Amino acid sequence: MKLRIAILLLSxxxxxxxxxxxxxxxxxxxxxxxxxxxxxxxDLGAKRVKITYGPYVVPGNADPETHGMKLFxxxxxxxxxxECLITQYTADLQFINGTSANANKxxxxxxxxxxxxxxxxxxxxEWPERMSINGNERSPVDMTIKGTRxxxxxxxxxxxxxxxxxxxxxxxxxxxxxxxxxxEYIPGTPDDFDIAVPVWLDLRGACLNExxxxxxxxxxxxxKTTSPxxxxxxxxxxxxxxxxxxxxxxxxxxLNGKLVCRNVPGYGETSGYxxxxxxxxxxxxxxxxxxxxxxxxxxxxxxVGKVVPGDKFSxxxxxxxxxxxxxxxxxxxxxxxxGIEFLHFARPRDxxxxxxxxxxxxxxxSFLDWVTELDAQPPVFPLHS
Length: 385
What we know:
Keywords: Signal. The chain is mainly beta and 385 residues long.
């Protein structure tokens, strides 16, 4: 049970999401694998596969225990390869018939999280390595920058990857979905490739212990990190992938006080991200008669520049609940906002491999201790309107 509780961390859930229910399945998630045509580095033997995880049965929002929120976890998820470099991946929530399960169909890929249990996190050294987080915007992660950069995430033979799928069903009846991920990778670790090291930059601090969501009375505000993340290594900052929630207008990342990245969300860019409500007040949207546009993409930053030890990163996330309708919990309160930026640093292969071999896995118990304390913290960010 404790391992299931720990998955809350990966999804970034905290205050206001206590109604989410974790899967009671102890075994690995069944997975279906399909080979696809790789996009880049075919001369190096690149491969691309589609892995379908699930199926997952998500209760309807009329369910009194879950209110349509359910977390599914796999403590040892199937990966596309081992002893390889993962160069790209995408995630999509789909119905059994292969069509996209999105907001317009009352289904949300609320969060997906990946964690390497055999590594140490670069931002919070007590924890295992947080590889990625994504939400219903379903952002692609491409560490090669469309084949122009030789970099990838190194997956070792014995690495154990924790996969969290946080699904939200706004239909009164249960719905069955699958998580479909496409992975592109290169076997081995080519000499001229760098290894991409992920770093989780969060409004709540490196170990998520500094702030806890926004006050419901604040409709327009910007939330800032209280203390910066300080790099302990040198590298090239090649990719920055954000995650925010409805209501966000932009997110900014600063390096030593200088703006280096601005992420701007798009809303309702395709029909899947537009909901049509009838004023029932039963949905997690807002219970008014109107069309609501949801976050459908967030711009990323690429090839940002060199980083050296001692460099300081901070983050500010801007929200305007009057400009963009926020998500609501089943009880009518605002859903917890988020402001996360996943930094990807390209570093020399031999240097990173040496560090990985010397690593001790981060402590799952440390996760459990943090999760236990999480709900007791007040839901207040340092706000600067």
